Amino acid sequence: MDTTIKILFINNEHAEYLLVGDLLRQVRHTDYRLTWCDRLEYAMDELMTDQYDVVLLDYHWGNGNGRDLLEGARTMGCQVPILVMTDEMEAELDRQIIRTGASDYLVKGSIDSQLLERTLRYAIERKAAELKLARLAHYDILTNVPNRILFRDRLEHALQLAERGQRPFTLMYMDLDDFKLVNDSYGHDVGDALIRACAERLSTCMRKSDSVARIGGDEFTILLEATASTTSIVHIAQKIVTEITRPYYLSGQQVTIGCSLGIAVYPDAGRDADTLQKHADMAMYQAKQEEGSTYRFFTEVMNEQARRQLVLEGELRQALSEGEFVLHYQPRIDIGSGNMVALEALIRWCHPQRGLLMPEAFLATAESSGLIVDIGYWVVQQACEDLRRLRALQSPALNVAVNLSLRQFTDNSLVTRIAGILAETGVDSRHLEFELTETTVMANLDRVSLCIRALAQMGVNFALDDFGTGVSSFVHLQRIPLSTLKIDRQFIDNIDSNANDRRLVRSMIAFAHSMEKNVVAVGVESKAQLSFLRQCRCDQVQGFHLCEPVAFDELDRVLALRASG
């Protein structure tokens, strides 16, 4: 192993080069190899070769100085410690040199072999410690690629270079498809190994000037410097998709994974870091909507969609503050008695210009912007107040079902806020039911399960919406206290004409009953569907054939009709 300390000496005085060489020869316990560079304009190329352990730089060069070299070395990410030599000690120069990136400085007339050797050694050791700390702070521990912090720094640097030189560059966002399924199926050790393998494959797709970073669980970013053409970007994107989707052999298992790439090119997709990141993320989301692994560029069409979404987000904030949301209720009917037993609360937006809007017109934006959390609390509050009003009208005992979204479970105050609403309205918690989709539950099973169990202790009931459309094992779903399963309307649509759908629905009902769960069929639109579900001993039904969603003020009419019917 070579223990020689390699020094680059940047100075235009031959006598000083000889003097430094002589001082280093006086150090007996360490071997030093001194390389002389006597031209400042050649120094940067030599310094960046990574051949040296430390640099000695003469700061004064006739009418100029070594500041540009120091700043250039710092900008280019030079890892070698640089010691500056000056003619005399100057306090302001001292501060300036250190701020510019030097490790230390020496006054020429005061240097002896012991001081020189100690300063060199300390600079090398200190730089090594700094690099170690920087690596811990800026590199992902699992994959050893840059993390979110370093990625952002490199993105800002790429923007600076692009603005000065008008050089386009490309930002890619990559997300692994169905990574959670790998974790659930094979365990977290295999999942971690898969993430490491993906990072390695991504790195092999890059040019030397490009960089890969891991910014979250299964999300990576790729920064492509100086991308000259769309064709070259496409070739790299195709190469990434090909590499990532090749089979992996991990812990004796063959694992395959898909990926989605979003591509944002400077300056067309944005001129600042936040805009580029947002647009790359939007393009990635578009890619995820496609079947199979693919990539999508951010386009002006997406940009227009982004502008519309920002306007919609602002209108949603106003709607919440101005009280423009209303609830409509769709009854659930007991199939045996024909009695109304529950109401599902469905949000509507009374838009000042566009009229009454259905949830599909605004809920996706509410979800992506985080407004769904506050809107969700409003729904729970309003539903409980309406339930209290029904009690005051001497209506039959009804449950009210409210949908909860995944975003709401990220709010640490979810349980306390709902408990506060129940206490404020005086509603019996046993008459409140929260509906969850299987996707919501499985996205963060531990977190969701914890919240649900706390609410269940208060007496709240839970239903699994869209039953049959998910991909997870029912063993996982047994971890949460579900009382009701709602069969999705896609299974009900054709039961009066499709034998396979009839067998499937009959099996789902029997399975749910074997698990001692109530079953609700959603989307019942015909007498024939209702008749079949009655034969299968389905517990409750919901759909336009029985009653369409109505405003609260119309519920008394619906209740009266059901009572007389």
Automatic annotation (TrEMBL):
Cofactor: Mg(2+)
Modified residues (4-aspartylphosphate): 58
Stretches assigned to the GGDEF domain: 167-300
Domain Response regulatory, first and last residues per copy: 6-123
Matches recorded under InterPro entries: Biofilm_reg_signaling (IPR052155), CheY-like_superfamily (IPR011006), EAL_dom (IPR001633), EAL_sf (IPR035919), GGDEF_dom (IPR000160), Nucleotide_cyclase (IPR029787), Rev_trsase/Diguanyl_cyclase (IPR043128), Sig_transdc_resp-reg_receiver (IPR001789)
Keyword presence, DNA damage: no
Keywords, comma-separated and alphabetical: Phosphoprotein
Any Gene Ontology biological process: phosphorelay signal transduction system
Coiled-coil blocks: none
Residues in the signal sequence: none
Any one Pfam family match given in the protein's UniProt record, by short name: GGDEF
PANTHER family xref list: BIOFILM ARCHITECTURE MAINTENANCE PROTEIN MBAA, DIGUANYLATE CYCLASE DGCP
Name of the protein this chain belongs to: EAL domain-containing protein
Annotated SUPFAM superfamilies: CheY-like, EAL domain-like, Nucleotide cyclase
GO MF term set: catalytic activity
CDD domains, per the entry: EAL (cd01948), GGDEF (cd01949), REC (cd00156)
Domain EAL: 309-563
